[in-house]
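User: Modeling request: complex.
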Amino acid sequence: MVMGPAAYAASLGATVARMTYELHYWPTIQGRGEFVRLALEAAGAAYVDVARGDDAAGQGLPAMQKLLLDRQQPHPPFAPPFLKDGVLLIGQTATILQHLGPTLKLVGRSDAARVWTQQIQLTIADMVTEAHDTHHPIASSLYYEDQQPEALRRAAVFCRERLPKYLRWFEAIIARNPAGTRHLVGGKLSYADLSLFQLVEGLRYAFPRATQAVLAGTPGVLALHARVAALPKLKAYLASPRRLPFNQQGIFRQYPELDIV
Amino acid sequence: MVMGPAAYAASLGATVARMTYELHYWPTIQGRGEFVRLALEAAGAAYVDVARGDDAAGQGLPAMQKLLLDRQQPHPPFAPPFLKDGVLLIGQTATILQHLGPTLKLVGRSDAARVWTQQIQLTIADMVTEAHDTHHPIASSLYYEDQQPEALRRAAVFCRERLPKYLRWFEAIIARNPAGTRHLVGGKLSYADLSLFQLVEGLRYAFPRATQAVLAGTPGVLALHARVAALPKLKAYLASPRRLPFNQQGIFRQYPELDIV
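Assistant: Request completed. Predicted assembly structure:
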């Protein structure tokens, strides 16, 4: 997208007409893109998962790379996932969700509800990074096998200290929600609920024993996870081929030696 | 703060009367709290740095711990820093800045400007976490000396791969700003500018050689850093005792062996 200063200024103030969203993310993993997919799917929003499309149709990885490398792009994302919403290009998972929230009705209307939802989302993001770093404590650019001794040390700390600390915080805020324990924020579904569902899914895949040990003491997190999984649109999505399976290239990987109780 | 459901619901919708902000953060380090301090100082906002106050005056660490451990608090922060703004309690550095931005006039007015500013802020936050993890790649709960071999490996990757990648991204978005290269977003100072200043300060302290080598190729980042440092309110703050010096307990630490060129 090439824009001069005037078009850019106009775009910053523009009310964007509703179009099909374009999600750009690595095509073979759930990864951070999945948090965005879940929001789009739960809301029944029209979107194209661009990098999973056909090169011949102008999609596929080349389409994603083209946007990432476009030197005319005034708001280049640092990394996938990113969302194209009309003229807007938005990176950072939590920012994408915050942008989508009001339109998809996945966040409360008040400033306070929006701030609290985003605060929870950033805490989920922190835990996602820590979960990733259990198998890549030295560098994402190295193989797991080349940082396995470090991974074993980091995973022990993650499973014994961080995993309980985070999940118990989520349990506390569910238990303290003055509107009831069905949701993280107020009495309605938010993007944070969807992300917590995904976080639990990932933790159960990657650290089944350690996660189960903690979840036994966090009934509110478990119930919220089950409630999200049963949402009709989510249930249909999870059973569809659009839902990629977990695998050994994503954030959550099944290395039994890292599941330390 | 004990609130029943009705008071809580009212608080979610309330327009908060302007009061003195209360910043809660560890009293002896710049850390993540510094990104909030810089915003408050640059705007000349009235605030109390609670944990640095007197225990006798109801401040100090006990006041911070009391809020952190308050089981009646419906929005408990996961960790410092957090901000008390009237009845609102807000954690996560980027969320605090996003909340403060409009009131302190440290963010543009359009949704698009706000989304872009927050996207940059989250990318700064990611780099801050990676900088921290150079000296604590295994666990924050262990001493540096107990994870030094891992730190040496991680720091090498940080200095050679990540530091250039991040700083060159900041350089690119400054160079591509259609409103000019004086700021990250549009033609006005934003909280992202202040945070980039702090990031450069920290990197120069912790990794002076590696950072200098990259900054030589990022004149836009250097110029923005100098421009922020020269803002009258910031300059006064940086020369005051309110600005804590960097030290070996913070995010940015001076371990020469980790400054790898």
